[in-house]
Amino acid sequence: MHISVHETLKGDPILGEDVQQRFHAMRFNDKGQALDAMGVACTEIACPHCRRRLPLGFLEEAHHIFSLVGDQSAGKSYFLSVMSKMLPSVLFQQFGITMQDADPTGNAALNDMRSSLFGAGVPEKINVVKTVMEGSMYERLPRQGRFVALPRPFIYTMGAADRSKPRCSIIFYDNAGEHFQPGVRLVEQPGALHVASASAIFFLFDPFNNPDFRHAMRGSADPQLEKPIVDQQDIILAEMRSRILNLRGASSSHRLTEPLGVIVGKYDAWQSLLPDGCIQYPVSKGKLDLNMLLANSRRIRELLLGICPSIVANAEALSADVCFFPVSSFGHTPVKVAEGAYAPDPARLKPFQVEVPPLWALSKFCPDLVATRGSGAAR
């Protein structure tokens, strides 16, 4: 649909009186631009289903959905905030690729969190919201005759500065953990439907929400050890698999061919469980080193097998292409700022490999943008 421009056409019958009308164009000017009912040329388009405004040029590029899933308090909002800063820098410095904000208005919630995280002077000033179904990371839009809460799509375009390589759009979705709890019906809460259409899925595993992993970290001074354990992470993986297979009409024995990245977060708190120096940074000289990346993955998989094997089992039942990543959004132990609330010290922020999981996925779907060296299976 197109979005009307003339001021007398304000008031959409579905979105409300304060919103410009959406319409199916029937008339066009000599430039091919749609004309609204008052004959004014319209340059903005909207989704015909939910009527949300679409970014400029959205229909001109290939799109890849990257779905981020994790339990409550896993750190998804922090991960997205840090990743949205680190990934563009590494893409440009190492690969000569520009990652641009395709929708500054739609991406405002993520941009604000990133600014708060990296611009705050003290931990108490950081304002990164949790992903909850009625929070700022969601918006209420019409779907099948009623308004429902849907996660905001964070849309970016990527391409070589000289336009010598095909461009693409990446859409990041962050989901509240409640969406993947058993008993939540997709008809009533359709916000998790994007995982069935995702080019890649990232599952953010929280070691502090797993009793066995927490036991392995005994002796740590991290204040997050104080928070109560609500261990539903293997259930979320199993529920996600069930929903994707159901939405695709696939058999119970089917495994996805789309890549699944299992991101073991808060690496700064558990890196002592691995030998010193065994995790290497797999990006150098303009390429992603797959052999190094997969060696890291094998070490993390072996660690998980020894501590919480159900996570490995559920992940590998979901996808035939699984890679395990050690990641830290902060790079240091956070500060307790309130009961049950923790934040990093802005002066000590040193993220660890937050950009590596999306680079891995991009290398599969956009090999012209993210070059690789080495080869090998996912495990």
Condensed summary:
With 379 residues, the chain is an alpha/beta fold.
Polypeptide structure, described:
The chain is an alpha/beta fold and 379 residues long. The protein folds into 2 domains: 2-54, no CATH class; 58-373, P-loop containing nucleotide triphosphate hydrolases (Rossmann fold, 3-Layer(aba) Sandwich), CATH 3.40.50.300. Helix content is 25%, strand content 24%. The protein has 8 helices and 22 strands. The chain has helices at 76-95, 108-119, 211-216, 233-248, 267-270, 290-307, 309-318, 356-365; strands at 2-3, 10-12, 16-20, 22-23, 34-35, 41-42, 45-46, 53-54, 62-70, 97-101, 138-143, 146-151, 154-160, 168-174, 200-205, 260-264, 283-284, 287-289, 322-326, 335-338, 341-343, 372-373. A 7-stranded mixed β-sheet has the order 10-13-14-9-15-16-19. Strands 17-18-22 form a 3-stranded mixed β-sheet. Strand 13 (154-160) and strand 14 form a beta hairpin. The chain is globular. It starts with a strand and ends in a 6-residue tail after the last strand. The mean pLDDT is 89.
Strand segment tally: 22
Average pLDDT works out at 89
Through-space gap between termini: 44 Å
Cα gyration radius (Å): 22 Å
Helix % is: 25-40%
Individual helix count: 8
Portion of residues in beta strands equals 15-25%
Write the layout of secondary structure elements.
Layout: E1 2-3, E2 10-12, E3 16-20, E4 22-23, E5 34-35, E6 41-42, E7 45-46, E8 53-54, E9 62-70, H1 76-95, E10 97-101, H2 108-119, E11 138-143, E12 146-151, E13 154-160, E14 168-174, E15 200-205, H3 211-216, H4 233-248, E16 260-264, H5 267-270, E17 283-284, E18 287-289, H6 290-307, H7 309-318, E19 322-326, E20 335-338, E21 341-343, H8 356-365, E22 372-373
Parallel strand pairs: 9-14, 9-15, 15-16, 16-19, 18-22
Antiparallel strand pairs: 1-4, 2-3, 5-6, 7-8, 10-13, 11-12, 13-14, 17-18, 20-21
Helix pairs in contact: 1-2, 4-7, 6-7
